[in-house]
Design goal:
By secondary structure, this protein is an alpha/beta fold. The protein has one domain (about 5-305): Alpha/Beta hydrolase fold, catalytic domain (Rossmann fold, 3-Layer(aba) Sandwich), CATH 3.40.50.1820. About 40% of the residues lie in helices and about 15% in strands. The protein is built from 11 helices and 9 strands. It has helices at about 5-15, 55-65, 90-105, 115-125, 150-160, 165-170, 170-180, 190-200, 210-225, 250-255, 280-290; strands at about 25, 30-35, 40-45, 70-75, 110-115, 130-135, 235-240, 260-265, 300-305. Strands 1-2-4-3-5-6-7-8-9 form a 9-stranded mixed sheet, with helices on both faces. Helix 3 crosses helix 4 (about 115-125). The chain is globular, with a radius of gyration of 18 Å.
């Protein structure tokens, strides 16, 4: 068996071993795939591009203590979640609110990764009574010099088969560089962390509709600065790294300045994927999520470098 076939077989096998059964919630806004496990304060984890519930699970297992209950979802068009006709980011936020209804959850803390930021922000804005606290980790945000998105026709061609994405997973040094860090600067734990993250990129074909939706709809909406941040009233923690190209610390700070109750956490290194910060981020996220309600009512934005 070639490495290509072996890696794809392993990726498909991994999707059969979630921490809890994967279920489908049928909502008026489309079908939402999720897995939920654990006891304690509930955290809804919204994955980034090229993700799914498995990417959300990987994040939760690295970033959250066992004392939280986790709901890991697949966004529109990823894995088992549908992409309804005329899908919008607002509809995706409504679908997640409907998922909370399905689960009998009145209020939840929300964590979003990278391209999941558009949906997470709209969920907090459109359904403020459902979101207690919001963490935007390595979020796609408006930028002074926004990165160019790949042309939709090119992305569609690259996602036609598994091979281009699989080839990317064989080049961890290139992925690290694109994230803003050099492979040679990563210790073994950080390299292992990157390899684990990359394992959630495959199989890519069942993620293709969601990736196209992100490229054509979700990310452009964010980059055009169409999110009314001033209306996001939940306490929010925006996390990036000094060497991250997305978001750059200055761009993250500009968004935090617009949040009524925003905090900024800038890690000293790690790039877009925040590599090498597992324990520090676990402590910081736990502290933020477990703050008393009145602790989140800030007079203005705060900035903290770790």
């Amino acid at each position: 068996m070639t490495r290509y076939r072996r890696d794809l077989a392993a990726a498909r096998q991994r999707l059969t071993a979630p921490p809890a059964p994967v279920e489908i919630a049928r909502t008026p806004y489309g079908e939402v795939e999720f897995t939920a496990w654990g006891q304690g304060p509930r955290v809804l984890v919204i994955h980034g591009n090229n993700g799914g519930w498995d990417q959300a699970v990987d994040w939760a297992q690295r970033r959250l203590d066992p004392g939280f209950g986790v709901v890991a979802v697949s966004r529109y068009g990823y894995l088992g979640s549908s992409l309804p006709p005329g899908a919008s980011t607002a509809g995706q936020a409504d679908a997640l609110a409907a998922l909370l209804d399905h689960l009998g959850i009145d209020r939840v803390d929300v964590v979003s990764l990278s391209a999941g930021s558009t949906t997470a922000a709209l969920l907090a804005i459109s359904h403020p009574d459902r979101v207690g606290r919001l963490v935007l980790e390595s979020a796609v945000l408006p930028a002074a010099k926004p990165q160019r998105l790949p042309p939709a026709v090119l992305l569609k061609a690259l996602l036609r088969t598994e091979w281009p994405t699989w080839w990317t997973t064989t080049k961890p040094a290139a992925v690290a560089r694109a994230s803003g860090v050099r492979w040679s600067d990563l210790d073994q734990d950080s390299r292992d962390e990157l390899m684990t993250i990359m394992s959630t990129m495959l199989p890519v074909v069942p993620r293709r509709p969601g990736m196209m939706f992100d490229n054509v709809t979700g990310a452009p909406q964010m980059l055009r600065d169409e999110i009314p941040w001033e209306q996001l009233t939940a306490p929010a923690l925006v996390i990036t790294a000094r060497d991250s190209p997305l978001p750059r610390p200055a761009d993250a700070a500009a968004v935090v300045d617009r949040l009524p109750h925003g905090k900024l956490l800038v890690m000293p290194h790690g790039g877009h994927l925040l590599l090498g910060n597992v324990e520090a981020l676990r402590r910081a996220i736990r502290a933020f999520l477990l703050e008393p309600e009145d602790a989140g009512q800030l007079d203005g934005p705060t900035s903290r470098n770790c």
